[in-house]
Amino acid sequence: MGDMIVRIMGEGQVRLADSHLTELNKLDDELLQEMEKGDGPGFRRTLGALLTKVRDLGDPLPDDSLEPSELILPSPDATLEEVRELLSDDGLIPG
After folding, report:
1. Euclidean distance between CA atoms 62 and 66, whole angstroms
2. Residue limits of the PspA-associated domain (predicted)?
């Protein structure tokens, strides 16, 4: 178990312990379900919760840090359509 670098578009990067991925995957699964149903309000709420959790659990990297990001998350104001383009079959968070 190590760390991963997560970028939140428009905000910067955080270093996040891999041990938090299980918790984040639950929110990612919810987000996928809401997107499939076209649940805009639910999608917005869950995306906000996911980003808040990443910010709370992660350690921000300095603004001038240019670490490669293993995971890129959409900005909090991303639309359902924009996030749909970022998704893989696994959702935003692999695993």
Report:
1. 9
2. 4-95
**Burial group, residue 55, by CB count within 10 angstroms (0-12, 13-18, 19+):** middle
pLDDT digits (tens, 9 = 90+) for 29-43: 999 999 999 999 999
Query: What CA–CA distances, in Å, run from 16 to 2, 20, 26, 81, 87?
Result: 9, 7, 16, 27, 20
pTM exceeds cut of 0.85: yes
Q: What separation, in Å, do the N-terminal and C-terminal C-alpha atoms of the chain show?
A: 14
Question: Can you tell me the mean pLDDT for 6-23?
Answer: 94
Give one word for 10, left, alpha or beta, with left for phi > 0 and alpha for psi -120 to 50: left
pLDDT at 49 over 90: yes
Residue with tokens 């938090």: 20
